[in-house]
Design brief:
The chain has 371 residues and is of the alpha/beta class. The chain is built from 13 helices and 15 strands. The chain folds into 2 domains: 14-152, 3-Layer(aba) Sandwich (Rossmann fold); 161-314 and 350-370, 2-Layer Sandwich (Dihydrodipicolinate Reductase, domain 2). The structure holds nicotinamide-adenine-dinucleotide.
Length: 371
């Protein structure tokens, strides 16, 4: 999507939609060491930290979590990797006192993103913030506005865009390899959410499972198609894990059909009904010349029975490592990330509209979401 059409649907002021000039002036010299801080070092944050500690030229100098023992555990992780990080339990204090920090990685729960992200962007730090951007469009717009006027850049936690096979497959699609994109078919079938993270089961805090979990595959499909959906229909509910764990308000299954411009359809099925050994994830894009499997980077031309394996640079490398490495590269070289504020805003609205369609049992349009 070009900048004009992107601006039109984002409804972001034109002046604010350009890349902030001071960011370019801020450019790091290529060999210089990046000083990175972490905010939120629970399940995801500690995993991001593990990978960031392996990225050359990065020094993790501060770690923050409202739970002191988690901040200490993260500092131990840094020490074991040969570094030293100061611990904080208040990210605002950390931002106030540590002017030496170049960039921040934030992995706090979904419902906290607006406050955390805006605070970090306002002090001019580069930010890697986990998905989803926010749990409603109004908060998402506030974050977009903060990002557009910020000195720092913003990479959003869609690490699958950096997964070597998926990245190669998307590049192939964008180069016209499978012809015109006609349809995407996705499945995320597995067991239930991890019980040790209670907020995952509260839809007020996680946005429910389309927004918190389905978002990754939907983001890949939106990226493949290159525009936002016009409308969506769907159905879902809680049928197996009823009140399990107690107080659960999130679904355990749903199906969605999105229509994108030109009649391109996305068909996505997501459930937690799989018994052990019966699990399945599928991410397939169908085009006029053939179809491609994003997970393996194998493409099947229509006129042949032989599948073709794409060349995959960095094959086998972990997508989260690749995302951390890409973030460091973007910070150093002032590059716009491939999982940037514009794509993340669209990829926040896509699952929000799907959820609304399921809850309200009706077709929901893009235009009503952004009105
Ligand atoms: N990209 C992915 O594949 C992926 C996978 C899992 C989670 N996530 C995302 O990562 C984020 C965190 O999820 P999680 O599974 O790690 O949850 P979690 O509950 O395990 O960790 C969140 C941590 O943030 C801390 N925290 C909460 N408020 C804070 C604040 N104001 N300041 C500092 N720390 C604060 C909590 O104490 C906790 O340690 C969520 O946005 C989630 O959607 C992304």
């Amino acid at each position: 999507m070009d900048n004009v059409s992107r601006r039109a649907f984002l409804k972001v002021p034109a002046a604010a939609a350009t890349i902030a000039a001071p960011a370019i002036l801020q450019s790091q010299s290529p060999g210089s060491e990046l000083r990175v801080a972490f905010v939120g070092v629970g399940n995801r944050g500690s995993y991001l930290l593990r990978h960031m500690l392996r990225v050359p030229g990065v020094k993790v100098v501060a770690v923050c979590d409202i739970l002191e023992d988690r901040a200490k555990a993260a500092a131990d992780q840094v020490s074991k990797a040969g570094g030293s990080a100061q611990t904080y339990t208040d990210y605002r204090k950390m931002l106030d006192s540590r002017k030496d920090i170049d960039a921040v990685v934030a992995a706090t729960p979904d419902w906290t993103h607006k406050d955390v992200y805006i605070s970090i962007l306002e002090v001019g730090k580069d930010l890697y913030g986990e998905k989803p951007l926010a749990l409603n469009v109004a908060d998402g717009k506030m974050i977009v506005n903060a990002a557009k006027s910020a000195r720092g850049l913003f990479q959003v936690g869609f690490q699958l865009r950096h997964d070597p096979a998926r990245n190669a497959a998307e590049n192939f699609i964008h180069s016209g390899g499978i012809g015109e994109v006609l349809m995407c078919h996705g499945m995320r079938h597995g067991g239930d959410l991890p019980r040790n993270i209670p907020w995952y089961f509260d839809k007020e805090k996680s946005g429910d499972i389309v927004v918190d979990q389905g978002i990754h595959i939907l983001d890949l499909f939106t990226w493949a198609i290159g525009s936002h959906p016009e409308r969506v229909m769907g159905s879902g509910g809680t049928d197996l894990f009823v009140n399990v764990p107690a107080g659960r308000t999130v679904m355990d299954n749903y199906n969605l059909i999105f229509e994108y411009p030109g009649g391109v359809r996305v068909n996505f099925s997501h459930h937690y009904f799989d018994p052990p050994g019966f699990t399945g994830i599928k991410e397939r894009v169908f085009g006029s010349k053939g179809a491609i499997d994003l997970i393996t980077g194998k493409w099947q031309p229509r006129e042949s029975r032989e599948a073709i394996q794409l060349d995959i640079p960095n094959q086998g490398k972990d997508s989260t490592y690749m995302a951390m490495e890409a973030f460091a590269d973007s910070v150093r070289n002032r590059k716009k990330p491939i999982n940037n504020i514009d794509s993340a805003y669209v990829s926040m609205i896509v699952p929000l509209m799907g959820t609304k369609a399921i809850y309200e049992k009706r077709i929901v349009t893009w235009n009503e979401m952004i009105a």
